[in-house]
Each structure stands twice: as structure tokens, then as C-alpha cells.
């Protein structure tokens, strides 16, 4: 069974650092992208970024570039999301998800789209003084 | 604001058919995918690509697309379908891998 198991809930103070994890199992971890998604309390899903554990190719949403760091350790099939200095506004649920790529063909080119077929249960991060 | 626009809320009578839409320029070129999220749970993929259902998703869920609008249709809505539904695709420039719609709260009456 394909699974993504995320680390447990965190309660931190503003200014502290944090690294949360997402461990994949049941599939070849290095062959699929892993994405991170934020969901603030009562709000929708926000795309943060994506990493390919095979070669650590990483792409960030402009909204999160410079705010977080996405990394992976393929030796232990684990992806990470980290903050160097948390803010109260980082309080949210964070999901990791396995990302697949599909495509369509038209107008003499391929159009690649991404979707998330397996999700972790989420890690709640609370930042409060 | 999101590049993919969804109605905030939609309701449907039990057993009836409901269509949830997602609008955006990128949908003229890229397929949308759809996720169901129930309270306190992680999202679940229900439709991806042209009209593909992952294993375990009931066949009452289907997807379609026309112009700049992608649609998720639930034919014969059940009480357990009450949830938030999100679409995702790429941004209109194709530079950003993933953007999400703002979500639609589906109420089954």
C-alpha cells in the first residue's frame, strides 16, 4: 500500500525553527515528486512547492519562495519542510502528497499537468507566544 | 486571489445530480484534477485528467471540460458526498506546476 506518513503536531513560539517530515512507503520514493500544501484554519488549499527525491530538483510557489525550505533524504524515503524563523501566520495544517504528471497533446505540443494521488494525514503547526 | 475560480458553495438534493465548476484561462490548455476533503481529513483525489477516477472512487463522480471551465459532476449525490471540493491545474502561463481553486462547499440536502 502506498503511504505517506507525516510527523506529529508541533507547537512552537515565533522565531523558532522547525522541520516536519513526510515518509513514503510502498512505492519507489525516488521516482515520484512530493509536494507540500498548506491549509490555514478554515481556509482552502495552497500550493507551496515540490521536490523530486531522485535528484532533489525543487520548485517553489512564488508565495513561499524564501519562506520555507523543501528537502528530501532518499536514503530514508523522507521529504521535509522547514522554517528557520516561524511566524504566527505559519499556523496551519501542512500536507505532503505524491505528485503525478499527466499530459495531453494539442497544437503540436504536449501540455503537462500535475495531480496528487496520495496524501499524508497532515501535520498541524501552531505558532504562538 | 486564485487563478482558478470556484463557487464558494453549492447544494444538491439527495439523489440528484450536481455540477461543481472551476474556471480559469489555464484550463483551455491543461486538464484539471479534483479533490474531496471532508472535515478533519486530508484531501482525496476523485478525478484527474480528462475523466479518470482513481481506484475506489464511485462512478457517480465524473469530470469534463469545455473552454476555460472544468466541471466535476456527481450523478445521484449521496449524503457522504457532502464535503469541500477543490480543483487544481497549472497557472495560466504554465510556469507554476500547481494552482488550486478556492474550493466549493457541497451540501447534500
Oligomer: heterodimer
The Rg value of chain B, from CA coordinates, equals 13 Å
Order of helices and strands of chain B: EEEEEEEEEE
Q: Most extensive interface, residues per chain? A: A-B, 28 and 30 residues
With helices defined by DSSP (H or I, 4 residues minimum), what is the helix count of chain A? 0
| Helical segment count of chain B | 0
Topology:
The complex is a heterodimer of chains A (129) and B (109).
Chain A: E1 3-6, E2 10-12, E3 18-25, E4 33-39, E5 45-52, E6 57-60, E7 69-73, E8 78-83, E9 92-106, E10 109-119, E11 123-127
Chain B: E1 5-6, E2 9-12, E3 18-23, E4 33-37, E5 44-47, E6 61-66, E7 69-74, E8 83-89, E9 99-100, E10 104-108
Parallel strand pairs in B: 2-10
Antiparallel strand pairs in B: 1-3, 3-7, 4-5, 4-8, 6-7, 8-9, 8-10
Descriptive overview:
The complex is a heterodimer of chains A (129) and B (109). With 129 residues, chain A is mainly β. Chain A has strands at residues 3-6, 10-12, 18-25, 33-39, 45-52, 57-60, 69-73, 78-83, 92-106, 109-119, 123-127. In chain A, strands 2, 4, 5, 6, 9, 10 and 11 form a seven-stranded mixed beta sheet that branches. In chain A, strands 1-3-8-7 form a four-stranded antiparallel beta sheet, with no helix packed on it. The mean pLDDT of chain A is 96. In chain B, a hairpin with a 2-residue loop joins β6 (61-66) and β7. Chain B has 109 residues and is mostly beta strands. Chain B contains no helices and ten strands. Chain B has strands at 5-6, 9-12, 18-23, 33-37, 44-47, 61-66, 69-74, 83-89, 99-100, 104-108. Classes of the chains: A mainly beta (129), B mainly beta (109). Chains A and B meet through β5, β9 and β10 of A and β4, β8 and β9 of B.
